[in-house]
Structure formats: structure tokens, C-alpha cells
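Following up on my earlier message about uridine-5'-diphosphate-glucuronic acid. Here are the inputs again, as you asked, copied directly from the submission form:
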Amino acid sequence: MAAVRLDLDGKPIKAMTICMIGAGGFIGSHLCEKLMAETPHTVLAVDVYNDKIKHLLGPEGEQQSDHHWAGRIHFHRLNIKHDSRLEGLIKMSHLTINLAAICTPADYNTRPLETIYSNFIDAIPVVKYCSENGKRLIHFSTCEVYGKTIGSFLPKDHPLRQEPEFYVLKEDASPCIFGPIEKQRWSYACAKQLIERLIFAEGAENGLEFTIVRPFNWIGPRMDFIPGIDGPGEGVPRVLACFGNNLLRGEPLKLVNGGQSQRTFLYIKDAIEAVLLMIENPARANGQIFNVGNPNNEVTVKQLAEMMIEVYSKVAGEPVLDVPTIDVSSREFYGEGYDDSDRRIPDMTIISKQLGWSPKASLSDLLESTLTYQHKTYAEAMKRMTARSATSN
Ligand SMILES: O=C(O)[C@H]1O[C@H](OP(=O)(O)OP(=O)(O)OC[C@H]2O[C@@H](n3ccc(=O)[nH]c3=O)[C@H](O)[C@@H]2O)[C@H](O)[C@@H](O)[C@@H]1O
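Thanks, got it. Here's what our run produced:
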């Protein structure tokens, strides 16, 4: 008999049914893998695509019968925008996790309506169904709700910029600072902030049991897409996949406005540990907003590029290009209306107190495993594609 799994307070964890909206994406796929491999829980996996979780499903989109998770993952191909089956799935579950979102910055200023609809309007019924049916909700928000740091408004060399209150982002203390409306970059952060406020209000007025997750640049295998290979040729994914794409094509990495913005990167496998603790410790997670990031992995985008160039050269056994990076303006790269978060250091007090969680993987280790994956998965397909376009020219 399998050993009884205990929560952080020593109580046995009961098997639950989880309605996971957006289960076919980057985060969803890692979470499904973890839930199948290490827990007894059942997942109703809701998404429009299932490519990233195909390895967990059988040929009919159902479970693989030869794995120990047989019968515990069911794929439901539906779009939450307009599908009456959604409420039924939420009612059948103990917990709903909403991961569905447009979350690539290239879309925020070029498809602002879709961005606002997907991150705010489409999420409303999910909140409502959970609240009306007394179901728990874990909603995925973003570190972007903090916007820019207070320190970014001070002169470059101002000593206060070194003070943590001017740059460390705290769930219960930091303000949300966005740019003007014409900078449509903030359409996303603003939509995410409003859905957080709606969820918080449902908790306060109607007793909704909720947890809000603010991911800080989670990266790893299966993130986004490589343009022209498993995504649109003209698409612009997030920075890991942009740089991965450049490395696979042997072209210089593009540094937007010189790559001076700073980010902290968290390995997806560390992040999933945190989410599992939230799932299995409702008494500690309900009513909380959690930063989930790795404050020790801070780099400028330029430094990230330099690290990725070095690691990729090692894993692919290829020499570094003579001109490995080039600077581009944000207008050239993203178009009108782009703006940027200057710096994102998560305060870890709440998550460490409530869940005892802290991140482990260093940036160099997580880049090594992620770039090894990218090279293995895409290098051959990229060679074939470049050979085809060379013969057709
Ligand atoms: O992954 C995340 O957690 C966050 O990613 C994005 O935010 P951002 O970090 O700005 O997105 P990236 O596209 O990964 O860009 C990071 C930085 O790299 C720069 N960049 C991106 C791509 C590129 O080719 N070159 C380049 O210099 C961007 O201008 C930006 O300064 C999303 O907006 C957030 O919701 C999400 O929480």
C-alpha cells in the first residue's frame, strides 16, 4: 500500500479532483506531470490545445492505460469564452486552477483588446462559478501587477535606489505603478490587477476561498514556442524562447533598448513545488496572494543573453558568433505602445512563512537543462527548415 501523504500540518492529504483551465500550456503541462507522478489527484484538463500534455494522454485525448495515472487525467477541449460545459466541470471539482491567459508582451500593445478580454472578461465566469458553487480557486496572476518600481522614478544615481523599499516587491505593501493609457503594454497588468481585485472582493463579500499566484519569470522546457517550428513564424514569444530561437538559427540575440531591464528567473520545477504546496495546504494558502520567484537569480537581460550564448555553445558544441548580440529599439522590436518593467525582485516573506517554500535552482543550472532541452528538441527541425528555405530561394 502506498504511504499516506501528509500536509504541512501533519494531516493526511485526501485525493481531490482539480479543474485545470489552461492545462495545455507551459505551466499547466508541468503541473499535470507533477500531479500524475506524485499525487493521487484527478485532473480535468481544460484547454483548446493539448500538444504539451500529449505524453500524459492516450490517443483519444483520454488517459494512457499503461501508466499508473490511468483514469486520473481527462482532457476537455473547450474554449472558456463560450462553452456552457465549464460550470459543470467546476461543480465536479474540489478546486479550480485558472492558468488561461495571453501572457506574451508582444501581444499587449498589438492586440490590447484580446489581452484585456482574455485576462479579465474571460476569467470572470470562472470566479463567479467558483464563488456561487462554494469551490476553491487558485488564480494565476503575474508579477507585472507591480508594474515599475518606485526607484525607477528617481534619478539614475540617487542613493535611495539602493534601498530595498524602492525596488523589492511586497504583496501587501508595494503599489501597482503603470504607465499612461497610450502605452498599451499596461493593458495586461491592468486587466490582471482588476481580476485580482474582483477575486479579493468575492473573498471579502461572498466568502470565496481563493489563492492568487504571482509568477516571477518562470522558465524551463516547453516555454512558449520557437517561431516557425512549433508556433507562428512572425510570432514573438518571451525572452527565453526569443533568445533560444536566435541561438538555434545562429543569429545575434536582440537586446531591446540595450537589454538594461532586470529580471529574476525561477526554474519551472521549483515553481511547481510551490504550487503543489498551495494545492495541498488550503488552510495555509486560502486568502493569500503569493509572489513565486527566485530573488537570487537576478540579471539584466544583457547578462541573460551572455549566459545563454555561453551555455548554448557548450551544450550544442558550436562556436560563439563573432557578433553575438545586437541592440534594437523597443519600437522596432515590439511596435508603438511598448513600455517595460525595470526590475522585479520578489519579497519572499509570505510564501516562506505560509508554505516554508524557497527556490533552489541557480540560473546557470536551469539554463543548462533548459538549453539542452531546446537543442535536443529543435536543432534538427531548424536545420531542415533552413535547408528547405535555402533551396526554395
Ligand atoms: O514570464 C513571466 O513571468 C513574465 O513574462 C512577461 O514579462 P517580461 O518579463 O517583460 O517578458 P519577456 O518577453 O520575457 O521580456 C523580458 C525582457 O527581455 C527583453 N527582450 C525580450 C525578447 C528579446 O528578444 N529581447 C529582449 O531584450 C524585453 O524587452 C524585457 O525587457 C509577462 O508579461 C509577465 O506576465 C510574466 O509574468
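One observation from looking it over: The longest strand covers residues 42-47. Hope that helps, and feel free to reply on this thread.
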